[in-house]
Each structure stands twice: as C-alpha cells, then as structure tokens.
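Two folds, back to back.
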Amino acid sequence: MRKISVAHSPDADDIFMYYAIKFGWVTPKDTLFENIADDIESLNQATLNGVYDICAISFALYPFVKDDYALLKTAVSFGNGYGPKLVKKKETKLKKNFKVALSGEYTTNGLLFRIAYPDARITYMNFLDIEQAVIDGTVDAGVLIHESILNYDDSLEVEREIWDIWQELAGKDLPLPLGGMCLRRSIPLNYAIDYENTLIKAVHVANKNKKILSDMLLERNLIRVDASTLDKYLDLYANDDSISLSELQYDALDKLYELGYKHGFYNSLVKSREFLIPSEYEELRNK
C-alpha cells in the first residue's frame, strides 16, 4: 500500500475538512494518507522545501511553488465579506511606520497588508501569539487570523479589515482567497486524480454530516474552540464553497496573483486554471 503525506493546519476548518478521512468515512484507494498538522506558515515553508506530498498552503504562496506542485480544486477557504483583521489597542493612532505582527511572509493576508501598508515595520510570529503581542505593546498592531477573528480581547479594536483592503485592490466584488491545498507534481497523474477525488469527497461528506463530525471532533478535544465558536467558524471557512473551486473563486485567485505580480512579489503572472490537475485524463483513460 502506498503512503502519502498529507499536511494541514490544526485549525478548525482544516481539521473538519480532513477528518472524514481520518475517521474512515472516506478511504483513498490502495493508499494510506499519513496526516501531519502544523501552523499554516510552517506548512508554507515546508512546501517551499518540498517536504510533503499534499499540503495545505496560503494561496499567496502558490506562485512560488507552481513548478513543483499542482493546485488542488478542493479544501479551499475564502472570505466573503469577512476575513483577517488588523487590530490595535483602543483609542490609539497608528503612525505611518507602525510596527505590526503578521502570521507569515507567505500568507495571503501578509501579501495584501504589505501592498496596503508599504511603510509598516513587520515582524512575523505564530498567529496564536499576535493578540497578546498587541496587548503587551510589543507591536503597535497585528493581523488576527483563523478563530482569533471571532474572539479577541476587549482592549482591542479593528483598525481595518483585510476584506476591505482586498475589495479596494481588486476593484470589484470577489471572494477573498485565503487557503487551499497543493499536490506534488512528481506523483503519477492517475494517482494524483484519485487523491484529489478522495479529498473532494471528504470535504463533501464532512459538510453533509457537519453536526456529527463537529461533535466527534469536540468530544475528542481535537478542536481548540467551543461548540458555538466552531459552528460560526465552519460557517465562514468550511462550507459548500469549500468543496470545489468555482469560476468566481478562480477569478479571485487570478486577481490575487495579478496584484502580486503588479506589485513585484511574483516574477511571472499566474493563471490559476493552468495549474490544476488535468482530471479530464481520467475520462479519456476510461473510454
């Protein structure tokens, strides 16, 4: 039996979308998926170094790994009217060169922030430490991500929504691309198609059985939030729009990569549809 490493973050949406496989509800054909959980920027760095066969990444990372990894169509997270938040202490005014904590160099929120605030002094840290760093005054502000956007200290207030930055830069109403998954290109195509189909089915099954799966995750202490927060978070980032990329989501990805290229972060202009696994091969193979 083949063994394939599948890395995802320990965040509620990633765990929810993957654990239909972990619990045995969906089984890859003749393959054992070995899952690894790590924070998203660590996964971005690991993908740059080719560590895992299948890996969750920030969408902003993908142009840097496109030659070695194909973009998967499933297990995606987009914001739609919401997303990461730039927070500061209440009743404070940020200077032009304010010191800010971001969760990683290759995160989507990091890319959009750097475009919007070119003079800010950036320090990178684990996203779990950002809120406290702002409270302690280690930094003037910080971008909160994941579950942190739902519950943060009363001493803090939102300076700006990354969603608003995205809408201004995009120039039209598009969902905010946050995270997805990629697969190593050296994996034979027929296997790659099977693996992607397995993940698509897992996300579909998870969404169809949301209450059961959520209860199982909570009972096993696999989630770091309570039931109410989990429901809110999954409604935002693990839902029917996570099962398979839509045309609107492809357009949003292309706009993100266009912005990154325009502002000098990428060396070439990436069109997301050109970097997918050619799943049509399966239809031709079966004829």
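---
second:
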Amino acid sequence: MLIRSSKVVKVPLELTTAPYHQSILKMNGLSVIESCTHTQNNTGSMFLEDHLLLFVLKGKYTVRYGNQSYTVKKNEMVLLQKSITVEYEKSGEKDEEYLLDYMMFFLKEDLINEFVKMADLKPSYPAALVAVSVKSVNDRLISYIESLKPYFKQPEEISSGLIKIKLLELLFDVADTNENFYFQLLQLKRKERKSITEVIEENIFNPVTLNDLTYLSGRSLSAFKREFKEIYNTSPLHYIRKRRLDKAKELLTHTSLSVTDVCFSTGFENVSHFSKIFKERFGISPSLLKKPLRLTE
C-alpha cells in the first residue's frame, strides 16, 4: 500500500482555490488550467475528477498510475481517464531557471458526447484497446495553446460560450492530429469491463466515490450495486469504510504516521469526520490510540 504523507488534491476543483494559484477558465464545470512557474522536482498526488488532457510547453511533467508511468516533455501531450489517483513529479527547464509551462484541460462526458455528435463520426473501435501514450504536439496545436493565453489575463470577461467553442475546437484538432487519440476519446465513453473485486482492491484507499467505482468497473450504478452485494454480501459504503478503518487502526498502532497522515493515506478526506467514525467503530479516538506509541518512542 502506498502511504501518502499529504492529502490527495482533487482536480480540477481544488486547484482553483488557495493555496493553489493557477490561472483558470471555467464554463459550467468545464475547466482549463494554466500554470507557468519556476519549480524543480515538485511532487504530489491528485485525483482526477474529470478526464485530463495535459499539454507541456516547457519543462517536464511525469504522472504515474498503477504500474504505468508517462513523462510529458516540451511540446508533448497525454490523455488520462477520470476517476484515478496519479502521482506526479514536475520540473522546469534547467537552462531557463527551471521554468515550467503547461495547460490542463479537464473534459467532462457531456463535452465529449457533444464533440462526437458534432463531428458526425460513427463510433468505430479498434479490435484492441488503444494504450495511453505520450504524443508530440504539432504546430497547429501549439498555435491553439498560444491563442488561449490572452484569455487567462481577464477570464471574467470571457463568455462561457466562447470557452465551450474553444474546447470543442481542441478536441477536433487533437482527433485530426492522431487517429489513436480519437480512439482514446471514444474509449473514455466505453470503459473496459473489469471485475468488481479488481476495481475495489485497486481503489480501496483512494478518495473515490461510488460513481467513480461504477465508472471504473464499466457498469451501470444499479449493476455495480447488485454485483457488489452478491460478492461481499453488504453495501459498497459499509464494506469500504470498514476496510479503511481497519487499515487506519493498523497504521496508527504499528507506524509513526500522524493521525492526519493516516486519515489521508486510507482514503478519508476530512480529519474531523475520520476521527468521529473511527471512535464510533473502535470506541477510542485516533489521537488517544496514538498516545501509547508516542510514549515508547
């Protein structure tokens, strides 16, 4: 199990509030985030609430998910599905005082559906799933990215309709650039069907919702709940909370992790809520359970 020492940032939502200061364009929940900064070996974790199309203009941005790792360098891009937790490491150009410049486009299902409808393309799929891969950005896409930069200077003056048109333009440009990217966009709509147990074990300690798990399993919500009940003889909420609390107790008892670290590393997002349900389950607060360990250190 990966032990996280800090909270997993939910994106795009939490990137738009302090202490993060990226520039942002928003339209009915659709988000484009620009970051241009000087940084070296900045690391962390983020949970993708929407599909992510990442462009790097300067520097290097590495994302890791499961046993997969993707390093996006200058004038490259990668498309990642939603409802996953990724570890990232980013660093700027060494010869430019570690300047890092990138844009993150968060794509909701509705936008992808509208693109497919507008393009009047017949959903055709390759025989096998197209693997996620890093692709070069051509001059056309670089020009598109540059055309967005002025919008970030006065985002409140940009109409939501224009933002939507620009995002649809992006999807057309990306689809025309590489056929595999078009297939990847379609695959975001057609999730690979995975076993319930595989989905649960891969995400038990991630800050996922029931809808996230449903999406990752490739099932409808009703089908997911039904099959889960058949396998575990309980509800997803009850099972996942029990597993997380059991793991939290183990970490509090046998490691030097703080209550806050244990909270975040087991998939909980609020320390107060975690402490409350922990005490309801075990009859003792996490902080009191932790005290004997501190006395022996």
